[in-house]
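Contributing new records

If you add data, match the layout below exactly. Sequence lines come first and carry their own label; structure lines follow with theirs. Keep one chain per record. Anything else will be rejected by the validation script.
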Amino acid sequence: MAKRTFKKKSPDLPPLDPLPARVDPCLATLVAKPPKGSDWAYEVKWDGYRIAVHIEAGRVRILTRGGYDWTERFPTIADDARRLAVKTAIIDGEAVVLDDQGRSDFGMLQRALGRMPSAVETGAIVFYAFDLLYLDGRDLRGLPLRERRRLLEPLVAGREGAVRLSEEVQADGEEFFRVACAHGLEGIIAKHIQKPYRSGRGEWWQKITCKRRDSFVVVGFEPSTVPGHLGRLLLAARQGNDLVYVGGCGTGWSHDLSRELRNVLASIATNKAAVSLRRKNAVFTEPMLVAEVEYRAWTDDGKLRHASFKGIRPREDEAAIYELRSH
């Protein structure tokens, strides 16, 4: 009688993990200068929408930072993700539109998504993948970033479609930051290559920006002296469950965009202000829109200094709205 042999199970393979329905993203902490040391790698700070691409059996889902399903808004990314050589995966990254210099442009992304009239096509949106959280039955979040990147790169490196690799740079952080700012980029991200993936804001991912930039709720506007145009946006930040007025923004839009913004805001005008504010020429609006604003600093009385408009979006995904610390 022949001797029966049994295959020994490999002790190295972890058990299959269920695919998470959603993962809260790891968020970078703003710091003044890049960290030093060989345990840090650097990437360009992309100027777009943070999204997670979920590849599942028979479907692709694209979720925003706040958990909204925006698959229909990124059809070319979803279509290209179906071509990746994976069965199941969650890929973390940023959806962007590149200008003719190869820089990500948030305003162009807004127009491609239909926020404002534009010649920018939806197909111009590309997804820069920078992390891999799940792959073919394995939850990778407990692995160091170095290992997650090792698994991500073969999947997306060298691709020129809608899904691409966000290149990692092993360099001197301060020199890379200087070059990034000189090329008109928003800034850089530093990531500790030995750390696992942790949802929420932490020290293991750090952002260093060439200028400060945040999102604020639009609570009204002041008309321009030019009929039918926008003079100034009135902005608010969150403080707990309340909105607090943080000043205005009067630059950053073209002649045509000024008129378009004025029309959009006039359509949501209201008699009831969302913040405590009295201004003679103010037209208050429903707090339905969020403005992306670049600014230099805060004044002593808690207002934005030298604010410039960069883009607008609906408030539905309000995870990124600037939050004031409660006193």
